[in-house]
Amino acid sequence: MKPQSDPQFASVDDLRQTLSDLLLSGPANSHDSIFSHLPPPHLLPPEPLSSSVYHSQSELIRRLSSLRRR
């Protein structure tokens, strides 16, 4: 569903009321209809940890482990 034109709101209260009316009177997936004009998010695969991060995390684990043994 494509909007016919960009709505103009006289005030923030007008915007709030319109959004409230849409959410209360719309179907269960009102949020989907509000944001349906947006493109899907571009999800990037997680990047592997760099060796420096791995090293610092390993060092932290070793220190915590040695503290628990005391």
UniProtKB/TrEMBL annotation:
<protein>
    <submittedName>
        <fullName>Uncharacterized protein</fullName>
    </submittedName>
</protein>
